[in-house]
Specification:
The chain contains twelve helices and 32 strands. It is an alpha+beta fold and about 675 residues long. Helix 4 crosses helix 5.
């Protein structure tokens, strides 16, 4: 039997060249030794011998003159770079107003070395004594003093991250002609006010933003390093546009604001004045006080958890300001109770004037003529074209004496000067109003469109403040206002408007109270219309109050109300331009009756001061005729002048309920009506 032959062991692989690894080791040792030697030389000498090379290199790279008049140090201690310079100055370019970009009696900093090459500059500590910085953009906003480049556009200023600072007697001057903004700030240490506070820096100054002057005072409070969980507390207050703004919070670093939640509170005379500083237009407000949480994210500023008041109304919600190519404001707001006076600015009134002197005085304050109530306050056209906005606002209740309004929901969109309130909905006396209003300031003058729809609403509650009894009134009313006009004020847009106004009353009852009110004695008006004290409700079959509007003048087209006993017709109209009212209402009986004046009851005057015109020429003429008959015949014959023959033609309710024009109205026998206003400017009294 043949024995197996044992296999030979494999040949060993040749090992790496020992000489190669010795060379690598020696090179690394030389490099490390050189670095250590340089570090050691710099550490021992503090790098003072680099003073003139630093001046030369820095001047060449920045294209500025850089000088150090005193001591100079530049070294690693041990891994952080230490920089110290006394009497340091860096010149500005020739076009700048200030001669130096930066000058300091003494500056000492500990710097993260890699931050000089990558990312944002990071300073572990900064000691600055009597420094002056002049930061400035040129007029074209192309160059600035802090971008060290011989050509090309200036970059936005980015504050380095500073963990700890000790600053004495330092001033910062900033100029941006494009915004325009001028600011002069002074930074100084402040006395500690808390036993836990070890370092504190105060900032104060003033300036102008656009044309608005402001003042600023701030404190940066840093606790002792020995306290665990070090923090930097910010407390700042600014005064501008008759407002006071407070900002507070905790910063991870003295100059670290990005993504940091800050508490913001503002209070003042008028919020619209404050927002106008950043070119945001809102209606005027009475005194306001608001607070919110602010977080900055690049060019976006988010305000959340907002609560507060304006006038006698509350406000809560959130809003965002984005400052990119165009300034944009987006807000979601809620109000539990809105005082009607605080709502006055929405149509151009000053709420303080409304509260103290009334609507007529408020209209006059906008430039409106005497006896006018439509405001002449101009839309902020230029400002509306400089920013965009989106708003979703819900209001639970409006406090008002005469008109019960609730559940308001407003959606607003502003896009390059085109303002849309669409939809604007609310409930009024258990009825709903839906409206769409467009204010297009891109057209000159502004093109304005109003479309307001009133759903079926109980008249008892709607007119309760004007002499109508809710318990005896079952009638309802619905309507629509469609108008288009041109103008930069509400008055001008209505004074040039064309369209139609129509209110329909289906079958129901109406009962008035003889209540004297300053606005209009509706109870007296209706009782005079029907020549009695109205001991029971008026039974309405159908009714229509409609107007055709041309060039701001509204004329009856038609006014027609059919009741169980009378047919009420009306002629005349009113003017949005002059705000004059000249309407005549006539009630003709369906059955013969005695002692009927049979003459129109006039509604005349102006929007601000409407009045009844009960003694009309027709009534005087009939009284004269009755007196003549009594003289010529018998006193009983004089009564014939006041007999209503009862020949009123009942109205066909179909065209009435369809809000048709006068030309489509018919009697119950199908004949066209010629006794109603037909939209003609001429009025038959």
């Amino acid at each position: 039997m043949k024995m197996p032959v044992a296999s030979e062991p494999p040949e060993p692989r040749p090992s790496a060249n020992p000489r190669f690894w010795r060379i690598v080791r020696n090179v690394l040792l030389i490099v490390l030794g050189t670095i250590f030697a340089v570090w050691l030389v710099l550490f021992i000498t503090k790098g003072r011998f680099l003073k003139h090379p630093f001046e030369s290199l820095a001047s060449s790279l920045s294209d500025r003159e850089v000088k150090v008049g005193g001591d100079f140090q530049l070294y690693f201690a041990p891994l952080r770079m230490k920089f110290l310079a006394e009497q340091l100055s860096v010149s500005n370019p020739d076009w700048a107003r200030g001669r130096t970009l930066f000058a300091a009696r003494r500056i000492e900093a500990r710097i993260a070395p890699l931050s000089l090459l990558f990312g944002r500059r990071h300073l572990y500590s900064l000691e600055l004594n009597h420094g002056v910085a002049n930061l400035e953009w040129d007029t074209a906003h192309k160059r600035n003093t802090w971008t060290f480049a011989k050509s090309g556009e200036g970059k936005p200023f980015e504050m380095p991250r500073i963990d700890r600072a000790d600053i004495v007697g330092t001033q910062i001057h900033y100029i941006d002609p494009q915004m325009p903004l001028r600011a002069n700030l002074t930074i100084d240490p402040i006395a500690a006010t808390d036993t836990r506070i070890g370092k504190a820096v105060g900032v104060s100054g003033d300036g102008t933003f656009r044309t608005t002057p402001f003042r600023l005072s701030a404190r940066l409070l840093s606790p002792d390093a020995s306290i665990s969980g070090a923090e930097n507390r910010l407390q700042a207050r600014a005064w501008a546009a008759n407002s006071v703004i407070d900002v507070s919070g905790t910063l991870p670093a003295l100059t670290e604001f990005e993504g940091v939640p800050l508490n913001v509170a503002a209070q003042g005379r008028d919020l619209s004045d404050l927002l106008a500083v950043i070119d945001v237009a809102i209606p005027q407000t009475r005194r306001y006080a608001l607070k919110a949480r602010l977080v900055k994210d690049a060019q976006t500023y988010r305000f959340t958890g907002m609560t507060g008041t304006f006038g006698q109304s509350d406000l809560s919600g959130s809003f965002t300001v984005t400052n990119e190519e165009r300034l944009r404001l987006d807000a979601t707001l809620a109000t539990r109770r809105l005082d009607i006076i605080d709502a006055a600015p929405f149509i151009g009134y000053n709420p303080d004037v409304v509260a103290s002197k009334g609507a007529v005085a408020a209209a006059a304050a906008t430039g409106a003529g005497p006896r006018r109530i439509l405001p002449d306050a101009a839309l902020p056209v230029e400002m509306m074209q400089r920013f965009d906005a989106g708003l979703d606002w819900k209001i639970a209740i409006v406090r008002s004496k005469n008109v019960p309004v609730s559940n308001i929901a407003l959606k607003l969109s502003l896009d390059k000067g085109r303002l849309a309130l669409s939809p604007l909905t609310f409930s009024m006396a258990r009825g709903d109003v839906v409206s769409d209003m467009i204010f297009d300031t891109r057209q000159r003058p502004s093109a304005i469109r109003y479309d307001i729809r009133l759903a079926s609403t109980p008249m008892g509650r709607l007119l309760a403040g004007y002499g109508v009894a809710g318990s005896g009134t079952t009638g309802t009313i619905r309507g629509r206002i469609e108008l288009e006009g041109r103008g930069d004020t509400i008055h001008d847009s209505l004074a040039t408007s064309s369209g139609r106004i129509a209110f329909v009353m289906p079958q129901g009852t109406l009962w008035t109270q003889n209540a004297q009110l300053a606005e209009l004695d509706l109870g007296t008006f209706v009782s005079k219309m029907f020549q009695g004290k109205l001991k029971k409700p008026i039974e309405i079959n159908c009714g229509l109050l409609a107007f055709t509007v041309r060039g701001g003048t509204a004329t009856a087209d038609p006014i027609l109300i059919d009741t169980s006993k009378n047919v009420v017709t009306g002629r005349g109209g009113f003017s949005f331009g002059t705000e004059a009212v000249d309407l005549a209402f006539r009630a003709d009986g369906k059955k013969i009756s005695l002692f009927s004046g049979q003459s129109p009851v006039g509604l005349v005057g102006h929007f601000a001061e409407p009045r009844l015109d009960v003694i009309t020429p027709q009534l005087v003429g009939r009284a004269g005729a009755g007196l003549g008959l009594a003289v010529l015949a018998t006193p009983a014959a004089g009564l014939l002048a006041f007999v209503d023959p009862g020949d009123a033609k009942a109205a066909a309710c179909g065209p009435v309920l369809a809000a048709a024009k006068a030309s489509a109205q018919r009697t119950t026998k199908g004949k066209p009506r010629n006794d109603v206003g037909n939209g003609s400017p001429k009025k038959d009294r």
